[in-house]
Amino acid sequence: MYASIWKRFFAFLIDAAIFAVLFWAVAHAAGSGTAAITLVVVIWLYYALLESSPMQASLGKIIAGIKVVDHRGRRLTFWQATERILSKLVTNLTFYFGFFMAAFDRRKQTLHDRISHSAVVLKNTEFDPDDFIEEEETSLTMVTIVSILLALVFVSALLMTVSLPQYKHLANKAQAGLVATQVAQIQAVQAERVQAGADSAVWNGEFENCQKLTPRILKCSGFEVYLVPTGITAAVRSPAGDLLYTLFKADNQNRVVCTPVTPESRTFCKELL
Predict the structure, then answer these.
(1) Residue 254 predicted with pLDDT over 90
(2) 212 bridge partner residues
(3) For the residues of 26-45, what is the DSSP string, one character each?
(4) pLDDT higher than threshold 70 for residue 146
(5) Which residues contact 58 (CB under 8 A, 6 or more apart)?
(6) What is the pTM (predicted TM-score) of this model?
(7) What is the phi/psi pair of residue 237, to 5°?
């Protein structure tokens, strides 16, 4: 009686093929922008007119042998069909979890079927209209709620997958800029002390937020600074202690040279400079 998810998917593929050909033809003739606007209007009229017609089905559904009915088994009006199209946006927002919930529903209803109080049935099947009771008109079923929750989990996982690497990159880049600034400040303080008569071969005095490990090595937060004959070098490490990259600033020069050690540090070393 109710159309299976596979019949509906087959019908969708046929309709999608029709839209793809139409989009290509319009885009070829008038550009992709015009094609996109045209396609939106065509999709609306295509489904609204055909599913509210005596056929009660799009071309894909006709070929698949299925049709659309309202919650009492009757033909949809044009505006009911329009509501059904708009409700498909909700299904799309759930990354099609709302579509696949039909596999677990007694009436094989998708999320947009429930929202628009409609169903897809086999074309020539006789059914009892009383079977379409009103229980979905006031609340969503557990299947609907689970579908939405699964979609939210999926979207969250997708956003984390996309955003975490970018966040890590930006954080590392910001850290590199901060270290470069600190290195320049340390070098400036050392230069002032050398000009005042201090030994240029060792670190002189104390440096803010840094601890002197040896006469030529400072331990700062997240990096060490080495005093070398031509300038100073900072070795930046991960929380686990692994070397990520080094920064070198020559005496009497503003330029800082970033040397990557890990693949991740190569990109922001280039951007830093």
Answers:
(1) no
(2) 218
(3) HHHHH-HHHHHHHHHHHHHH
(4) no
(5) 11, 15, 46, 47, 50, 51
(6) 0.50
(7) -120, 160
